[in-house]
Design goal:
Blueprint: E1 7-9, H1 11-16, E2 17-27, H2 31-38, E3 42-43, E4 48-52, E5 55-59, E6 62-63, E7 80-83, H3 86-97, E8 101-110, E9 116-125, H4 128-147
Antiparallel strand pairs: 1-8, 2-7, 2-9, 3-6, 4-5, 5-7, 8-9
Length: 148
C-alpha cells in the first residue's frame, strides 16, 4: 500500500460555482510532477478545463517545481491532458458548448495503486446573491454545531 495518499479539495470551486455533475479523470504527468504532488505542493487558483480537438486539458493548475529536480524539472503551469472515456468526453463537450457552463477541477487524490486522479465537475457560475446565501448557510450551520 502507498503511505503517500493525497486528497486535496478545491474549496473555492464549491464557493464560486454550482456543481451540476461530477466525473473522475486521470492525468498525464511527468516524473517530477508526481513527486511534487506527493509533497502537497499544488494550487488550484483559477484552474479550469477546456477542449482541444476532442481532448480535455487542464489549464492554470500549479504544481511547484520539485526541489530535488535537476534540469529535467517540469514547468509549474504547463497544460496537462486529462484522461477520460470517449463517451464522457463527448457528453461533457456538448454541455460546455451551452452558455454559462464550465469544467473545473474539484479534488486531486491518489488511488491505492499510486495513480493521481482528478474529480472534475461540470459547473455553472454562482451570482453574488447565491454566494451570500452560501455564507449565511455556513454561518448558521457553524452556530448550530456550537450550540450542541
Amino acid at each position: 500500500m502507498n503511505n503517500n495518499n493525497i486528497n486535496i479539495k478545491n474549496k473555492k470551486a464549491y464557493f464560486k460555482f454550482e456543481i451540476l455533475d461530477n466525473y473522475i479523470a486521470g492525468v498525464v504527468l511527468q516524473g517530477t510532477e508526481i513527486k511534487s504532488i506527493r509533497n502537497g505542493n499544488i494550487s488550484f487558483n483559477d484552474s479550469y478545463c477546456y477542449f482541444v480537438n476532442g481532448e480535455l486539458y487542464l489549464k492554470n493548475f500549479h504544481i511547484a517545481e520539485y526541489e530535488n529536480g535537476t534540469y529535467n524539472n517540469h514547468e509549474p503551469l504547463r497544460e496537462r491532458k486529462l484522461l477520460m472515456t470517449k463517451r464522457e468526453l463527448k457528453k461533457l463537450s456538448e454541455k460546455v458548448t451551452e452558455k454559462g457552463y464550465t469544467i473545473v477541477p474539484l479534488r486531486i487524490y491518489t488511488t491505492d495503486k499510486g495513480l493521481v486522479k482528478f474529480d472534475i465537475g461540470l459547473a455553472r457560475g454562482k451570482k453574488d446573491y447565491d454566494k451570500r446565501e452560501t455564507i449565511k448557510k455556513r454561518d448558521i450551520d457553524r452556530y448550530m454545531k456550537n450550540e450542541k
